[in-house]
Design brief:
Strand content: 15-25%
CATH class: Alpha Beta
Distance between the termini: 28 Å
Number of strands: 11
CATH architecture: 3-Layer(aba) Sandwich
Helix content: 25-40%
Order of helices and strands: EEEHHEHEEHEHHEHEEE
């Protein structure tokens, strides 16, 4: 089981089955990347591997954000596919980075994740938390059918390897049909919203124990 209690402020769901992938959906600036990292990072303290696909920021930027969330970051258990187009070097020789020239290169992303998974296997790391931030960037480069097919292959791989997947999307940047189509590829959806008074709320849909009620969410973007 993958423990979510440290990052998910929903009491009814504190852990999820291996092979589960969740979609984190909400408007821009609602805290999706930070929530994803809050759910990914605790696994490092628990011995999991972490495989992150970043489409809009550099690997080093995300590494800094991960370091603030763990007791001591073991870079040997972190792999990042950097699609930002940056040519900067990794933070240290221990950090495994696969660089892809553009978020539109799904073949490059797939090859990169496969290489990182192979490295985890060689290190005897069998439980891996996957994160992709964000699907919205992929949709800026590619059509819905192509992105859906890529997500299907990726989430199937997560299921087959008994991993955990977290994928973010800006739901206010796409039409409802697009969101509904992509949502079908995930086991559950974590939804974020902002109330009329400016407060943030969160709920989880799709999983058996989810209460499906909106609750306060105080994470910062």
């Amino acid at each position: 089981m993958y423990n979510l209690a440290e990052g998910l402020p929903i009491e009814t769901v504190t852990e999820i089955q291996p092979g589960t992938s969740l979609l984190i959906a909400g408007p821009a600036m609602s805290g999706k990347p930070d929530l994803a990292l809050d759910l990914l990072a605790p696994g490092l303290d628990g011995g999991n591997g972490l495989l992150l696909v970043t489409t809009n920021e550099t690997a080093t930027a995300y590494l800094d954000r991960l370091e603030r969330r763990v007791t001591e970051l073991d870079q040997n258990r972190v792999g990042i596919v950097d699609c930002s187009g940056s040519s900067q070097q990794g933070a240290s020789p221990n950090l495994a980075i696969q660089r892809v020239s553009s978020p539109g290169d799904l073949t490059g992303i797939s090859i990169g994740t496969a290489k990182l998974m192979k490295q985890f296997t060689h290190k005897d790391i069998t439980s891996v938390r996957h994160g992709l931030i964000s699907i919205s960037t992929l949709l800026q480069y590619l059509d819905l059918h192509t992105v859906f097919k890529f997500l299907h292959i990726y989430t199937t791989r997560i299921t087959d390897t008994q991993g955990m997947g977290l994928f973010t999307i800006d739901d206010d940047s796409h039409d409802p049909q697009t969101i509904n189509t992509l949502s079908n590829e995930f086991d559950g959806i974590v939804e974020l919203r902002e109330t009329e008074t400016g407060e943030r709320e969160i709920r989880l849909r799709g999983l058996a124990d989810a209460s499906n009620t909106w609750e306060p969410f105080n994470s910062e973007t």
